[in-house]
Every structure is written in structure tokens, then in C-alpha cells.
Specification:
With 133 residues, this protein is mostly helical. It has 6 helices and no strands. The longest helix has 23 residues, at 70-92. The radius of gyration is 33 Å and the shape is elongated.
């Protein structure tokens, strides 16, 4: 026994790794068993149904809003309506001038950008969706 302590003076693990054997101090082993037991107790308390978070419903609503992308969809729908109304207004003009045609051109062109950001794969669209780049 004394030659084993001389072989591992720092208290590190030792043993025959080919046979899946490990030599360890009994006190360290018992400390590890107690630590594992306390961690299992913490996991049980976290998974316990009786520990209800009073804000859990609010968290579920926030997750639903994030996962369903409610606000980006509302933004795109409102922009589609704005584009539709501006195009109908422009087509109803008897003699449109350069400024009016530029306004409608910008609104319609920006719709492509809005849709690209909403549905695209770029870093900007991922940030818009709340994903990691």
C-alpha cells in the first residue's frame, strides 16, 4: 500500500486503464458520491411540478409571440397594405408627375427589401427573425 501512495503522491487518479480500473482515495470517492446525490436532489427540485413559476404564463406568451413571429408578420401585412393603397392611388391619378411616380417606385421597391429581410437567409434577416447570425 505504501508503494501505491508513493506512485500517486498528489492524490490523482491511478490504476490500470486497460482493464477500466481506477484507484481513488475513499474519502474523495465518498465526496463525489455526496456531490452527485446533491446534484440529483437539485434536478428533482427543478423538475418538480409543484414549484410553479408565477410568471410562467407570461413566459409562454412571450415564447409564442417569438416563435410565431407575430410582430414581423404584422409589419409585412401593414406594408403590403401601404403598397397596395399607394399603387391604387397612383393609378387613379389623371396625370401623375415625377415626384408621385418616384414615391410609388420607392414604396414598391422597398417591398422587395422588406420581404427579402422577412424570408431571406442573410445575417440581417436572421437578426430580424431573432435567430443567431
Amino acid at each position: 500500500m505504501s508503494d501505491e501512495r508513493d506512485y500517486h503522491p498528489s492524490g490523482r487518479f491511478g490504476g490500470d486503464m486497460d482493464r477500466n480500473e481506477v484507484e481513488m482515495d475513499l474519502n474523495k470517492f465518498m465526496a463525489m458520491i455526496e456531490e452527485i446525490g446533491s446534484l440529483k436532489d437539485k434536478i428533482r427540485t427543478l423538475e418538480d411540478v409543484s414549484n410553479n413559476n408565477p410568471y410562467q404564463k407570461v413566459i409562454f406568451v412571450a415564447q409564442a409571440i417569438d416563435s410565431w413571429r407575430i410582430f414581423p408578420r404584422i409589419f409585412v401585412i401593414v406594408y403590403i397594405y401601404l403598397m397596395y393603397e399607394s399603387v391604387i392611388w397612383f393609378m387613379a391619378l389623371p396625370e401623375p408627375n415625377l415626384e408621385q411616380s418616384a414615391l410609388v417606385s420607392v414604396v414598391v421597391g422597398a417591398m422587395g427589401v422588406v420581404f427579402g429581410v422577412y424570408s431571406g437567409k442573410t445575417g440581417q434577416s436572421k437578426a430580424f427573425k431573432g435567430e443567431k447570425k
